[in-house]
Amino acid sequence: MQAHNALMSFRTILIVGGGFTGTVLAARLLRESHAQPTCIILVERQEEVGRGLAYAKHDFPYLLNVPAGQMSADPENPTEFLEFAQQQGVSATADDFLPRRLYGEYLSAKLKAAARNPSPGTQFLRIHGEVVRIRRVSQSGKSSWSVGLGDGRSLSADTVVLALGNPPPRKLHRCELDPWRAAEEVQPGQSVLLVGTGLTMVDVALRLSTVPGVALTAISRHGLLPRAQTAFTRRTMCDGGELLDSPVSLLALVSRVREQARAAVAAGRDWREVVTQVRACAPALWRRMSLEDRSRFLRHVRAYWDVHRHRLPAETAARIAQLEAEGKLQVHAGRIREIRRVDRGPCVIWYRRGALQSEILRVDHVVNCTGPDYRVRQSPEPLIRSLLRAGLIRPDPLELGIEVDPSGEVIDARGRPVPRLYYVGPMLRARDWEATAVPELRRHVAALARRLTAEATVKLPKRSPALAALGFEIDRPR
Ligand SMILES: Cc1cc2nc3c(=O)[nH]c(=O)nc-3n(C[C@H](O)[C@H](O)[C@H](O)COP(=O)(O)OP(=O)(O)OC[C@H]3O[C@@H](n4cnc5c(N)ncnc54)[C@H](O)[C@@H]3O)c2cc1C
Prior knowledge:
34% of the residues lie in helices and 21% in strands. It is α/β, with parallel strands linked by helices. The structure holds flavin-adenine dinucleotide.
């Protein structure tokens, strides 16, 4: 309550979540000049900001799947991450795939620098805690948000941005939800089933390949592995004009894209150029697709799109191929019917793709590599559940994420935008399909920052000692 009163005199923007999206948004809002003095509050439940799920601190050097030269968090300063890495003594070029852990350090340093030197009239407050509910309150004709933390603290904000990021995967048997942590449990000589064959499986397989004598089996519906990245040229043909002018149906689109890819290869170029082109215009293509075609895409095309779009550093792809060739990793297309726990560990009943007869696989561990489960209605997160109960958010019809209007304000249960409650992050795939990687997210963050800096509500004093007195950490993000 004390916190609530102290912040009343500020125009406050509260960001829930300090992963890539929340951290970069906070840094931008601190640097840019606002229509009126503003206090930016960043609430993150992890000890450190900037890491989130993707850039967590692991001892194993998990790599970025995008070269350093394309990973700047700032679209206006494309070499920022590369320069940061070089300043840390890493001898890297724009084409190198650097550790994800280093990227987390970059984001944290970016926020620290912005908080040390904010634009005039802007202040920063970092709170370590979990937001569990958000309620609208109206007082003297002015409406604001009351934001409740898990430990009972409460804050008031004029604007709230939900930057909640990547949800945990679907529950699978009794598997640990964090596959990177689960990998640390595996002992030499053990057998492991990896459920999923995407980028998370690759992470875990690489980590486990360093444990002597481990036998790996990976199963997914299609059994497809992500393709390798190359140093292809991002040509100007990537405006997507032709695709956007072509017929709207999914079938026509898919055959056009395949034709373009074949033509590129026949002309001595790289099919990745075509994928990049489609990715660039994916939001426009997705928005004009009918709901039926979107649903068809998810059922029939998505698995193929994903492995061509989310690619691996060439060395990583070669290492996975080597593990397969050595028989240390077996990849199958199939469907898991059941995982039972028997005395000797998990017993997996599964069907190979197209087979009628089930097979039994006994392993020492099962690791859930199925990736984030974006189905909002199934979310175990207290905040999401509370927002749903209050009717403040709603999932899109295909349950890909959260619905927002073009400005980023969330859409409530009755289909109306909720003033000054925004969402930004990977769940924008409900609107844009391609919304999970840094190149897309940084653009969304920049657009939201522009909108928020233009908003204005109340008049403020200069730096407030009252905030420090409340025991919150000010201007010192960790
Ligand atoms: C393993 C992995 C690797 C990736 N690698 C790449 C890559 O190499 N290149 C690339 O371009 N993209 C990559 N991505 C894509 C990635 O989604 C984005 O880059 C980015 O992590 C998304 O950031 P975010 O902040 O939206 O989500 P997250 O990183 O998930 O962060 C969300 C944060 O919000 C916090 N939070 C959530 N709810 C609450 C709450 N109620 N209260 C307080 N805090 C809360 C969480 O603790 C978390 O720190 C990767 C993704 C993953 C999962």
